[in-house]
Specification:
By secondary structure, the chain is of the alpha/beta class. It is 39% helix and 16% strand. The protein has helices at 19-35, 47-58, 90-99, 111-125, 143-154, 172-181, and strands at 6-10, 38-41, 63-68, 83-87, 103-106, 133-136, 167-169. It has a 7-stranded parallel β-sheet with strand order 4-3-2-1-5-6-7, sandwiched between helices. The protein is globular and about 45 Å long. The two termini are 25 Å apart. Bound molecules: adenosine monophosphate (AMP). Adenosine monophosphate binds at residues 12-14, 42, 44, 71, 75, 90, 93-94, 109-113, 115-116.
């Protein structure tokens, strides 16, 4: 069984148009808090980000936020976090969030979520890390993403099996079930690899 102690969650700064998205964020945060798995996230107290953090903290968990100074107001940096890292840029934010986490979870979100997700997928494709990347496919939100990746692979622009890079799960429960089946080597937070 893998030993995941911290999970970086990428998700929307909005809640989207379906209450199921917010419910998935709440459930994920709650389960992380219950399991003692630290949340690493973008520190905003808005949208899906705020919901996942509030739920993790309410369940007795730790929440570590990483936010650039220029977004402190726009994303209403959460003032009740276990740790808040204020960094100088979006790039430093992404790197720091990644470094602090043993695995990555992606809830529904927008362009920022996609940017963050593609970055960790491309780093993995280049062999820079081997951390699990799991997309929570609430209400089939990520199906067009999976189709796009399939098309990229079928068209010869990505090699191999994209299942080696990331996986889709339907619910936060499934995410934890899958993490438990992964071999130990997948769970090593090894920032020195970078
Ligand atoms: P969105 O999915 O567009 O609602 O954005 C979700 C989060 O991703 C927000 O906290 C954004 O600030 C963040 N974000 C957007 N672009 C980037 C980026 N290039 N690097 C790091 N975080 C980003």
């Amino acid at each position: 069984m893998t030993d995941i102690k911290s999970l970086c969650v990428f998700c929307g700064a909005a809640v989207g148009d379906n209450p199921a998205y917010a419910e998935a964020a709440r459930a994920l945060g709650h389960m992380m808090g219950q399991r003692g798995i630290k949340l690493v996230f973008g520190a905003g107290h808005v949208g899906m980000m705020g919901i996942v953090a509030d739920a993790a903290l309410a369940a007795g968990g730790d929440a570590i936020g990483v936010i650039p100074q220029h977004l402190m107001d726009r994303e209403l940096a959460h003032d009740g976090l276990t740790e808040l890292h204020v960094v100088e840029s979006m790039h430093v934010r992404k790197q720091k969030m990644f470094d602090l986490a043993d695995a990555i979870a992606v809830l529904p979100g927008g362009f920022g979520t996609l940017d963050e997700t593609f970055e960790v997928i491309t780093w993995k494709q280049l062999g820079l890390h081997d951390k699990p990347i799991l997309l929570i496919d609430t209400e089939d939100y990520w199906q067009p993403f999976a189709e796009l990746i399939g098309n990229i692979t079928r068209s010869g622009f990505a090699r191999g099996n994209h299942a080696d890079l990331f996986a889709l799960v339907k619910t936060p429960e499934e995410l934890f079930d899958l993490l438990e089946t992964l071999p130990e080597s997948h769970a090593s937070a090894d920032p020195d690899k970078f």
